[in-house]
Design brief:
Elements lengths: L7 E5 L2 E5 L3 E2 L1 H8 L7 E6 L6 E2 L6 E2 L5 E6 L4
Parallel strand pairs: 1-7
Antiparallel strand pairs: 1-2, 3-6, 4-5, 4-7
Length: about 80
């Protein structure tokens, strides 16, 4: 029997987004925040009352309903 994964709601830079996978990558978050961008960003997330945690560029993050992601420019010159 295959377990269905219903879409959950996450917030990226203050905008609600539907996500239908159990994990999300750095690249997917950046694409949702800034479609088509090739700039470098710092991506952090919170869930509940936890402190912001950095999203690694190499490993996906387990997604939970209500997670909030912040995507900020690194301001490198």
């Amino acid at each position: 029997m295959t377990e269905e994964h219903k879409p959950i709601t996450i917030t990226i830079n203050g905008q609600l987004k539907e996500w239908d996978s159990k994990h999300i990558t750095y690249q997917q978050i950046v694409e949702l925040a800034f479609p088509g961008s090739t700039d470098d960003y710092t991506v952090t997330y919170t869930h509940g009352h936890k402190e912001h945690q950095l999203v690694p560029t190499s490993d996906p993050v387990k997604v939970e309903d209500g997670m909030e992601f912040d995507v900020d420019g690194t301001h490198n010159s």
